[in-house]
Each structure stands twice: as structure tokens, then as C-alpha cells.
Design brief:
Length: 401
Amino acid sequence: MALLVLLMAVVSCGAPGGDKPPKPAHPVFDAERSLQLLKSRDVMRQSGLARFTSTLVVGSAGGDAVETSRGEQDFGRGTAYAERTMSIPDDFPERIADRLGPPGTETFAVVARQVLVRDGAAWLHYRPVGVGPVADATRSLQRFAGETAPYGDTLAEAIPSARPQGRPVVREDGGRDYRAVVPGGIAAAALPSGLGRMKDDWNSEAGKGDNAWFPLDVRLDSRGRVTWATMDLTPLLAHMREVEGVKSVRATYELSGYGGRTTRPLPDPSEAQDATKALTLIGELAPGDCALTAPGLPSLSMVRAVSCERRHDLRVFGQALVDIRGSEAVDGQAAMKWAGQGCREEFRSAPEEWRREAVPAGRYRVTGGSRFTGHYGASGESHSKLKGHLTCYIRTSAPGS
């Protein structure tokens, strides 16, 4: 009888429906909830290439400026190819439009954390150059060499730092929908660089409590990979300056086709043209010089100098060195106002053939930067200084034409 029981036990252990090995832990959904969005980054890196679309909509009373980037991100190799298109309506606030970058389409590649921009049939390589005016001009390009995704100017940079709020919604396909929040400093990185600086440090009173966190919606597929994210960045405007006229900002990020093969050949950085040698600081152009806007740069701090007999985007008609001292040295707007007065006089005295080129007719512009230093003495006297180098120029063709 004992032998029969033993045989039955052996048969039972080997029969279908017996004890199964434990199910492997899910790399994302079985992790601690606060770490799940961070863990999704690791799964994405193991999945290789994905196709992406990133959209940023900046709203105003005059319509929406829309920045759309589409391309491929290879999370495993750390490479990316992206076409970025900027669309700006005619009635959009002009001052903000100038800083968002010219309308049209630009093509970027990221290889080994190096950012390259297509310039016609060639590629420009914006190499880091330490400190100084050239470094200041090209620093904004480094945002494309992302930490989380190889093309970094997307919400992908915010997701690993997001803190899930409550339980995620489990979808029928096995994926999850998360409602999360991210720190203000991280959220600000998703803003276009031209929208100005943060007014307050996020360690200050303005960045504490509820003001320090901003909502983010994220969708993961059944394997824990990001397929969609969206964020309303409008509340950040309250902590920024020089954004008058901007009413709303919303970002969206979509991914699909994980594990596919690249359809775009990537350039070799060693064969690309050094942008710092091909371009010129606009402050180094003499009155009467002409230039083309530099691909990839949101500002006109660097341009490609060309003969005025060839097609050109702008003509410089003056340079203004700003040196304001005392109580009038307030901020960058004081420098712009001071330079604007000088540019107005120079525009009036510029040759008629230069002024005829202006688009729109009769309009001139000012670009450049300033640096503020100073303090108040014991007697209350201001020792403030505001120095800068600003350039007076006219556009000679409509942006994007």
C-alpha cells in the first residue's frame, strides 16, 4: 500500500497541471511603484531602435507656434536621426517668434553624444568649445544629446524623474497608464530654449510645495516601454520672464516600432564640417555685411557670412557696445532698450539700398547678449554694471523662404 501511494505521488508531480515554476518578475511592473517609470528606461535601452514624434505647441492670442520632431531613436546604440519642423503663424508675438528659431525644417543626427546638423548636402558638427561667445552661441545644441534618449529635446528626459501618483490603470493589452508628477526644474528642460530663463531657482520659495511639481501622463506597453506621454507646461510660465504674449505650452511624445531597423544612414562625425570654423559670430560682422542664418541654432548669435551679391537672410547695419552703470543697469531689457535707441539712429542714416531690403519694409532688429553685475553700497548707492555687445540688423528675406 505504501508503495502505491509513493507511485501516485510521483505521477502527480509529473502530471500536467501540477506545480508550475514561479512566473519571472516583470522588469517594470513588479518593481516598486515609485521606480517603475525609471525602470522603463532600462527596458527601452534593451529594445534598440524606435520611431518617435515629439510635438511642442506654444499658444498665443495670435495663434499657435508648433515644433514637431520626427525620426528614429536607437536607445541601445545611443544614436538618433530627426527632422525638426517649426511652424509660426504671422500674428504670433514677434519677440518670442525670433527666439523659437526660424520657421522651416532642420535635420539633426546624434552620434556618440555628438550633435550634427545637416547643411545642404553636408553636415555641420557643433563641437563643445569651452567658454566664451562661441560656447554661449552653441550651448543650446547640446540639449539634443539627451541623457535618457539619444535625441534629448523631448519629454523622454522628464519621464525617469516622474513620481507616479496612485495606482496605474491596467489596460486590456497589458500596458499601464500613469498619472505622475515631475520636479519643476526637470519639466523646464522640455521647454524650447528660446522661451527665456527660469525666474527663480527651484530651491527658492517659488519652487517649494505644490509649485515644485507638475503633472505628466505616461503610457507604457505590456513590456514596460514608453509609447506616449503628454504634459501641460503652461504653469511654468509663471516662473519665467520675457515670455509676454505666450498663453500656453503643451508637449507630447509618441514612440512606436520598437526593435525595427534604421531607415536613415547616420553621418560620421569625423567627416562633418566644424561649425565653429564655418560660422561667424554676428557681433564680428561689419556694417553692410550680409549673412545666412545658421542651421540648428535658435538664435542669430552665429551666422554664415556671405557676399551680399548672393542670397542672404540678413544684413548688419550697426554694432552697439552697451555699458550702463548705476541704477539704470537693471537687466537685459535695459541693454536692449539702450541698444535699440542707437540702432534707430543708425537705421535712419544707413544707405537707402540697405534699408530697401528690409522685410517687413522699414523694420530693423536687435540681437545680442548682456551681462549684469553689481551691488548696493552701505550708503544705498548702486554699483551695478550692465555690459553687452548687440547687433543692429535687418531681415532681407522672410523666415523659411
